[in-house]
């Protein structure tokens, strides 16, 4: 009796090319196995990507195999799909961890960090344009849909294979389990990495612990934010030793310790700091500098700003929301509370409504839309720092007021991707910023810089030199005997620039014409000049507010909340 012809095209191809079909089938199965193993062993930090990480035996694979071998067909299919989808989700979270560790120096917080994905999209739009941002968004959506689906397919295929060869896969699982237990008991390693892996289980435990810690932190920080050493201090007893002074609190984007000490960036940056120290001295100004440890790294600048100004350690978005929704005293609102200063914010990086201006005690806010700039953006930065300071002079500092001025100024030209970088131009040419069209077009493209580790460091260093030059040139030209400048970095640049093991330290400097201002901080141990010594004091950024208020005569009158 003749054998029935294969009914499907796939079956006909197998019948015609049995060897090729078997090879293809085993290749696909090996791919499925490789995907599962890679997902189970995938590190969540870029620095951990090395061959030894993937030369381990994941215990989760052995447990999963034992379960799939033991289950009948329908429960096995359900378990395989569920396991694959779960592994896909964990893989996506690991990929988020990789990105967050690369850019922010920490893992992804599954409770708090979803809002930052919108900020990332905005950053891509500003840096890569509409088309680049759209392409990246589409790629992310495809990845989010494809990874769980592919992982589910891989586990189902492996489960079906084990069901067809139960005896062989059972023996293989027992042998590998024995090897795993032996390696674990003897602490055997390859390339400094344990062969017996519990990586995925450890990642899951870590995520669960972080969720619990985040929830506990929310409750504890709400109480902490209500207590304030100077919460009940009347305005008349705040910063009496600075009465009559024009105060400038200025943040330089991504100005970190690496800019001053890294062998690639520091020669140019240090030369600029030393030259500007001499220019200040020639104009009658003097400076002292030290180090602060920022609450953030690589990005999320607002966390650094709020930590410095509030005196609270604000290292996540929920803490930021909690403190800015309250009335905790900030350095800037302290000057507002006295009634003796006009308080303004110069915020070129703010491009939408910013209700936090009230929390910071700002009488008037100049955001990106109110500084009169008509020139091009420089990647993310909406305008060059030289223009920002020129606008500050035109709109506020150069005008007559019945009170001295307290200003909070954010300089953004040193924001990643550090290309193109503005050039210092003659001040009488700044105008409305249109002159920067030619500067921006002649500058380097982000793609030519950002992915080259040496070039990106060099361009980052140049951006810091530009920002410091813009700021100090402004003080030298427009400062007077009542000018007091406090400037600092908000955080270190991303790991590709600062280094995988970089600290979170940033430079801080106080500049004044009146020697009595710097005499008040003699006991701080700060270095003379704009460049802090390597062994200059290092304080947590959150400690600066109380030290500053105390140094300039403020009376502590605590509130307990």
From TrEMBL:
The keyword Lipoprotein does not apply. The chain crosses the membrane at residues 21-42, 54-71, 78-96, 133-156, 168-188. The keyword Transmembrane applies. Keywords: Membrane, Transmembrane, Transmembrane helix. InterPro entries: Alkaline_phosphatase_core_sf. This is Membrane protein.
């Amino acid at each position: 009796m003749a054998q029935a012809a294969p009914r499907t095209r796939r079956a006909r191809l197998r019948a015609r090319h049995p060897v090729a079909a078997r090879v293809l089938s085993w290749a696909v199965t090996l791919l499925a196995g490789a995907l599962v193993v890679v997902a189970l062993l995938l590190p969540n930090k870029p620095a951990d990507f090395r061959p030894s990480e993937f030369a381990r035996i994941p215990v989760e694979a052995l447990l999963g195999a034992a379960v799939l071998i033991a289950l009948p067909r329908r429960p096995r299919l359900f378990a395989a799909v569920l396991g694959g989808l779960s592994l896909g989700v964990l893989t996506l979270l690991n990929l988020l961890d990789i990105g967050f560790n690369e850019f922010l120096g920490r893992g992804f917080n599954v409770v708090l960090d979803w809002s930052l994905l919108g900020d990332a999209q905005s950053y891509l739009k500003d840096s890569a344009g509409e088309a680049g941002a759209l392409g990246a968004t589409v790629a992310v959506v495809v990845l989010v849909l494809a990874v769980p689906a592919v992982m589910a397919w891989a586990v189902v295929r492996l489960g079906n294979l084990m069901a067809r060869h139960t005896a062989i896969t059972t023996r293989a699982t027992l042998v590998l389990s024995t090897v795993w237990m032996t390696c674990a008991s003897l602490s055997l390693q390859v390339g400094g990495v344990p062969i017996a892996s519990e990586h995925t289980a450890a990642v899951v435990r870590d995520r669960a612990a972080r969720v619990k810690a985040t929830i506990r932190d929310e409750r504890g920080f709400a109480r902490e934010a209500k207590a304030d050493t100077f919460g009940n201090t009347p305005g008349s007893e705040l910063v009496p030793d600075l009465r009559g002074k024009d105060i400038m609190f200025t943040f330089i984007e991504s100005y970190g310790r690496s800019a001053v000490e890294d062998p690639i960036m520091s020669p140019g940056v240090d030369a600029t700091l030393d030259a500007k120290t001499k220019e200040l001295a020639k104009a009658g100004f003097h400076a002292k500098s030290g180090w602060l440890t920022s609450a953030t790294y690589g990005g999320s600048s607002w966390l650094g700003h709020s930590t410095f100004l509030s005196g609270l350690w604000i290292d996540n978005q929920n803490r930021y929301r909690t403190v800015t929704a309250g009335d905790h005293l900030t350095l800037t609102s302290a000057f507002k509370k006295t009634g003796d200063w006009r308080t303004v914010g110069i915020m070129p990086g703010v491009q939408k409504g910013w209700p936090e201006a009230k929390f910071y005690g700002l009488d008037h806010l100049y955001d990106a839309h109110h500084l009169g700039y008509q020139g091009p953006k420089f990647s993310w930065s909406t305008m060059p720092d030289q223009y920002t300071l020129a606008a500050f002079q035109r709109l506020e500092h150069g005008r007559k007021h019945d009170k001295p001025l307290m200003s909070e100024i954010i300089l953004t030209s040193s924001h990643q991707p550090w290309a193109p970088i503005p050039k210092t131009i003659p001040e009488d040419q700044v105008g409305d910023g249109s002159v920067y069209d030619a500067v921006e077009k002649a500058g380097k493209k982000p793609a030519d810089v950002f992915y080259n580790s040496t070039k990106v460091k060099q361009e980052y260093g140049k951006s810091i030199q530009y920002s410091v030059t813009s700021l100090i040139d402004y003080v030298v030209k427009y400062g007077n005997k009542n000018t007091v400048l406090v400037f600092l970095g908000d955080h270190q640049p991303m790991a590709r620039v600062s280094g995988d093991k970089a600290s979170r330290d940033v430079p801080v400097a106080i500049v004044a014409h009146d020697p009595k201002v710097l005499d008040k901080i003699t006991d701080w141990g700060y270095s003379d000049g704009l460049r802090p010594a390597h062994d200059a004091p290092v304080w947590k950024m959150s400690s600066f507010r109380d030290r500053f208020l105390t140094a300039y005569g403020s009376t502590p009158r605590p509130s307990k909340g």
